[in-house]
Amino acid sequence: MIRSATLDDIPEIRTMIRELAAYERAEEQARATGEQLGAALFGEHPAAFALIAEDDATGGVVGYALWFPRFSTWTGTRGMHLEDLYVRRHARGAGHGKALLAALAATCRRNGYDRFEWWVLAWNTPAVDFYTSLGAELLDEWKVCRLSGDPLRELAAQAPPVRTPAADTRERHARGPR
């Protein structure tokens, strides 16, 4: 069964995030706290959304998908970015991953999203094979770019002031009529 995540799922989602990070050989990078995940998924302005896969026989949580909306300037429409898709090792091959992806594809259609995109590590052959079997197109010509840590701080320190419409309006009112 696939269902929307609830606040009660946060500990299980956090555990699966760490399991996924360990599989991807980056466990030390999975630092999100339960509080952060709760705010991101269930706060006043959610940053992301999650689905849970449960085993039909036991009701146990066997996987999750975490996604957020994105926007394409080329199509002028929103799309979906899948941040995480994870099915626990013992439950792989039973259709949970495909069910999660199908539920997300249905969400795309329901919301009028033209694109459903995600990243996959090049060395993760089982995932690459699974995605291509579903008709996913691998975009080899694109490279993922990331700024974090010191490079992010250093570039941010070079930022010019950015004026906002609200600041412009306040300044005009402060000057008064001409």
Structural write-up:
There is one protein chain. The protein is 38% helix and 20% strand. It has 6 helices and 5 strands; from the N terminus they run βααβββαβααα. A 5-stranded mixed β-sheet has the order 1-2-3-4-5, with helices on both faces. Strand 2 and strand 3 form a beta hairpin. It is globular, with a radius of gyration of 20 Å.
Which key features would you list for this structure?
single chain; about 180 residues; alpha+beta; 5 strands; about 40% helix; about 20% strand
Helices and strands in order, then pairings?
Layout: E1 2-4, H1 10-23, H2 34-42, E2 49-54, E3 61-72, E4 77-87, H3 96-111, E5 116-118, H4 125-133, H5 149-156, H6 165-175
Parallel strand pairs: 4-5
Antiparallel strand pairs: 1-2, 2-3, 3-4
